[in-house]
Design a protein that fits this description.
- It is a single chain.
- By secondary structure, this protein is mainly alpha-helical.
- 83% of the residues lie in helices and 0% in strands.
- The chain is built from ten helices and no strands.
- It has helices at residues 3-36, 48-61, 63-95, 97-110, 115-126, 130-154, 158-166, 171-208, 214-223, 227-255.
- The mean pLDDT is 85.
- Pfam families: BPD_transp_1 (PF00528).
Length: 264
């Protein structure tokens, strides 16, 4: 690879990072200044420096990583099951009209029910152990992956399908070489939305009924009137969610090399 090309890529990466950091840095400086001047009450919204000190203390004590590890483990378990079920049912509903008609009513009925409404029901059925929390995550991640998979399967390019018929390709070849590849961008969109829903689901479950996890830590900090600890938990969720979404985007670029909408 040409040395100039490498330098240009490095320059572009650094430039993009700096542009992305401009607004957060300005907001942090403004936040700190307003806190120091007394315009923002520390009991409601601590300054960035106070939150940083709380972060350091939580890292030293190990509480932050312990609770994050528990929450991430729950999310990965529930998300994996929800993603597998969402993709399988999405493919079946997208391919077969009979299955779509059979499940259309129940999907239309269950999908609008918010995750918060399921929490007390699942606690009643399963108790407050891991099963209820993972089930909540499965439900939360299942719907966006299902809907996007159905959309992707049904959205296969008609021109490619016509060419496949002209070339007398088998149905299996058409599915593997045309329908599934064309559905992948939509499936990955569902996976990205699904991981966000999975995070929201686990935090909801942990705040309502848990004795561990980052959601429990946020709820417990609220009870003790520790807004700095609470915000460390909130920002940790955002950082972990961002990193997972970034990894899924990179995986999408590697898998779907032909998608012109992918970032170079």
């Amino acid at each position: 690879m040409n040395f100039k090309v490498i330098l240009h890529r490095i320059y572009r990466i650094i430039k993009n990072i700096l542009i992305a950091l401009i607004v957060p840095i300005i907001l942090l400086i403004l936040w700190q200044v307003l806190s120091d001047k007394g315009f923002i009450r520390s009991s409601v919204l601590p300054s960035p420096y106070v939150i940083y000190e709380a972060l350091v203390d939580m890292i030293k004590s190990g509480d932050l990583f312990k609770n994050l590890y528990i929450s991430i483990l729950r999310v990965l378990k529930g998300y994996a099951i929800g993603a597998i079920l969402g993709i399988i049912f999405g493919i079946l509903i997208g391919l077969f009209k009979g299955i779509e008609k059979a499940l259309d009513l129940i999907i239309g009925f269950l999908r609008p029910i918010p995750i918060v409404a399921w929490v007390p029901v699942l606690i009643l059925w399963m108790g407050i152990d891991e099963a209820s929390k993972i089930t909540i995550i499965i439900i939360g991640s299942f719907w966006p992956i299902l809907i996007n998979t159905i959309y992707g399967i049904k959205g296969a390019d008609k021109k490619f399908l016509e060419v496949s018929k002209i070339l007398e390709k088998s149905k299996l070849d058409t599915l593997i070489k045309i329908v599934f590849p064309s559905a992948l961008p939509s499936i990955f969109t569902g996976l990205r939305i699904g991981i966000g829903s999975a995070w929201m689901s686990v935090i909801t479950a942990e705040i309502i009924a848990a004795t561990s996890g980052i959601g429990y830590q946020i709820s417990y900090a609220r009870e003790l009137s520790q807004p700095d600890v609470m915000l460390v938990g909130v920002f940790s969720i955002g950082i972990i969610g961002f990193l997972i979404d970034y990894l899924i985007k990179k995986l999408q670029i590697l898998v779907i090399k032909w998608d012109i909408n992918n970032e170079n």
